[in-house]
Amino acid sequence: MSETLFTLGAGPVDLYPEVRAAFTRPVLSDGDPGFLSFYERVNDKLTRALECSTPAVILQSEAILGLEAAAASLIARGDVVLNLASGIYGKGFGYWAARYAKEVVEIEVPYDTAIDPAAVEAMLKKHPEIAVVSVVHHETPTGTLNPVREIGAVARRHGALLIVDAVSSFAGMDIHPEDSNADIFVAGTAKCLGGAPGLTLLAVSDRAWAKIEANKDAPFASILSIKDWRHAHRADRGFPFTPLMADMNALDAALDRYAAEGPENVWRRHASTAAACRRGAAAMGLDLWPRSEAIASPTVTALKAPDGIDAEAVVAEVLRRHGVMLSAGSGELAKKILRIGHMGPTAHPIHAVLALAALGATLGAMGAKVDIGAGVEAALAAA
Length: 383
Ligand SMILES: *Cc1c(COP(=O)(O)O)cnc(C)c1O
Fold this sequence. Notes:
Number of strands: 14
Number of helices: 12
Bound molecules: pyridoxal-5'-phosphate
CATH architecture of the largest domain: 3-Layer(aba) Sandwich
CATH class of the largest domain: Alpha Beta
Distance between the termini: 33 Å
Largest sheet: 7 strands, mixed
Oligomer: single chain
């Protein structure tokens, strides 16, 4: 058994030291006035980080809960939903949407490309009855970005509400609920914020609240409920269920760290690490998975596994040889894609150098033609 020395995969990420330390803070009772006011302060910090004008909402489980809750709460029985699928998360959201909607129409594109806002516009013209549009900003399994701002502008023009999965992009680049016209914007703690999986971070627009409150089928008194937690941030209101105090402590530390470093600085190091990764991989002789660099994510770099080489076997071997945990693809693309994550604490170019060196050495040993030296030099030069 090899020891994991560096976690450089597509998430969850290793924790910032401040976040790790916060898990040792006292866990107060949920009725403790100290905890009630602490929760309100953390919620305020989150609202500021999200740059939203409505108070943020925190759901008490990993980010996947927020996505399912968004479908359950916002989509009413009579709704037609437009689901945009450029990858596995987008495709998966369509299955949730189908549970709650009258009908789901979908635009699906190859998983190395992005959704074209013009196609969204055409679909909304053809189906003016579409009430909700859903999109994933960053398809983590394939490292591709969708143009959510443009898609959000189109949805807004047509009066449709927009659900954005920004779980692996928020806090790693300049993306926020209101600049993308998102009505429900879903983020998490375990990607670019450098925390552990445990909480869903939501921004909900006034329009979305009106629809949720009017939706008789929206869950309440349920783990899937968004509205149960609408007022939880108010110290005078209390909680519908027990909040995850240890995770709230960690979120507090992650948000403090994000604010202290400065969001622009955090985004910049994500972008420069991604650039180092792409330059290095290209010089090494590896191809990017996204069809164009313009849609390549600043938070995860997805590469094509060289012909005849199984990406899952490569990832296992990199860990065994070097103690470096990378990621393969997911689902049907599991064996075809190699991923280097650079989120939160590992979004420093030196991690790209390390990941590429370990990857290159292993690929070389497995018979691929790679130029490790050129890759490392190019990654260092780009950093
Ligand atoms: C990681 C991820 C999720 C799910 O987050 P969890 O913390 O695993 O629940 C959802 N969407 C995208 C795009 C992700 O990258």
